[in-house]
């Protein structure tokens, strides 16, 4: 297949591009490199030394003989350029990773909120709009988030996208219907993914676009089979307070002797998936497209759930790291349970990599190799969820949220 990978220079997009190229697909990475600019804005860098995208694809060609094409396009801003590219290339499938994906970054200021909403909603809408305009019957696979559901605590498993509900009709009878699971975002970033869901629902219904939405949990790990083939193919690995995600942050913190930064009591339960499984899931989704006219196909792309404090304790046991319980900069439930259905990928043959598979130590080893690149002052998460929390921080410059724990 000819596959466009929107956001193919990112943490999940790059290993997905390599994985699909390895399987013989013709891969076109489209990326505006905004993530690299955000590194510059924040004064941080990936823990792993990343080469330019041009150099990365050159090394891939050298190692495998396969060409990955790169196109520098901002899909949120350059609608006409993007549409012209789609018209000229007419891909069979499009994998859409190209959004601002960090919840803390999306909550930093009013400018960051605007940027995240404008970028993410326009990116998705421009894509859908252009597909209809060009009569492009490509299968669109979008990377969504488990966070659209809001980590429900109702005691029932979260279904894959749709909820069966009974409504009482005017004549007093029961009518059953399936609705999109009620959206309950916990950040501006997660909210944009809820808006994406509605865009997809409309375009599948109105224009018969074939869309799969992958509601993914937190991705951990860094290597995949293909990124290991050459040191210059290495994946990016974020550790800073905005882009680093919890499990990868804990593993890096353990490697550099920094106390594990648990927010609040650490009673938050979240869904996780290893990066190798994430790329495999995209492959499985591409092999199983919905038919034209079908509703949006939703998968829960996660393999296990864990409570944040249990993760910290597990890593502490493995590495001897200390655990620091910090005031939470986010507005979120301090404790929640989370049960998630993920039958569809298992039935399609996904064989999940779990935390017990020894990969935790592998990640700590990667982090130890590159520990010299870590700026410890960028480790604390300081982005506040509300004005009240921000004001508290401002009033008290000694507040532990602002101080590096050491
Ligand atoms: P990332 O920030 O590393 O990659 C996103 C890529 O998209 C970057 O290379 C960026 O430059 C590009 N991009 C952003 N806006 C663009 C635009 N307007 N035009 C062109 N390119 C643009 O993020 P990631 O961790 O690889 O996540 C990829 C997708 O998966 C995101 O949509 C995210 O919401 C979703 N996701 C990620 C995780 C995770 O734990 N990393 C978990 C669940 C879902
Ligand atoms: N947390 C800590 N300590 C830290 C960092 C985070 O306790 O040092 C806590 C947070 O408060 C939160 C939980 O860990 O309760 C998860 O935070 P996270 O930053 O790992 O994940 P999140 O903000 O939800 O976002 C990440 C990705 C996002 C993706 C989402 C999937 O950045 O793109 O959509 O995971 S999910 O969480 O399932 O919604």
Which descriptors apply to this entry?
406 residues, alpha/beta, Rossmann fold, 7-stranded parallel β-sheet, 3-stranded mixed β-sheet, 18% strand, binds nicotinamide-adenine-dinucleotide, binds sulfoquinovose-uridine-C1,5'-diphosphate, Epimerase_deHydtase, NAD(P)-bd_dom_sf, NAD-dependent epimerase/dehydratase family protein
Can you put this structure into words, describing what you see?
With 406 residues, this protein is of the alpha/beta class. It has one domain: NAD(P)-binding Rossmann-like Domain (Rossmann fold, 3-Layer(aba) Sandwich), CATH 3.40.50. 37% of the residues lie in helices and 18% in strands. It has helices at residues 13-22, 34-42, 53-64, 79-89, 103-106, 110-133, 188-207, 246-256, 275-287, 308-319, 343-347, 359-369, 387-395; strands at residues 2-6, 26-31, 68-72, 93-96, 139-145, 162-168, 174-180, 210-216, 218-220, 260-263, 269-274, 297-301, 304-307, 323-326. The strands form 4 sheets. It has a 7-stranded parallel β-sheet, sandwiched between helices. β6 and β7 (174-180) form a beta hairpin. The protein is globular, with a radius of gyration of 21 Å. Bound molecules: nicotinamide-adenine-dinucleotide and sulfoquinovose-uridine-C1,5'-diphosphate. Nicotinamide-adenine-dinucleotide (NAD) is lined by residues 7, 9-13, 31-35, 74-76, 97-99, 101, 119, 123, 143, 145, 216, 218-219, 245.
- CATH topology description: Rossmann fold
What is the highest CATH level, the class? Alpha Beta
The ligands bound in this entry are: nicotinamide-adenine-dinucleotide, sulfoquinovose-uridine-C1,5'-diphosphate
State the share of residues found in helices, binned by percent. 25-40%
Largest sheet: number of strands, sense, barrel closure: 7 strands, parallel
Structural class label: alpha/beta
* H and E order: EHEHHEHEHHEEEHEEHEEHEEHEHHH
Overall morphology: globular
Task: Tell me the quaternary state.
Answer: single chain
Structure annotation, total helices: 13
Low-confidence stretches: none
State which percent range the strand residues make up.
15-25%
Average pLDDT rating: 95
Distance between the termini: 50 Å
The tally of structural domains comes to 1
Number of strands: 14
Protein name: NAD-dependent epimerase/dehydratase family protein
InterPro entries: Epimerase_deHydtase (IPR001509), NAD(P)-bd_dom_sf (IPR036291)
Domain NAD-dependent epimerase/dehydratase: 3-292
Pathway: Bacterial outer membrane biogenesis; LPS O-antigen biosynthesis
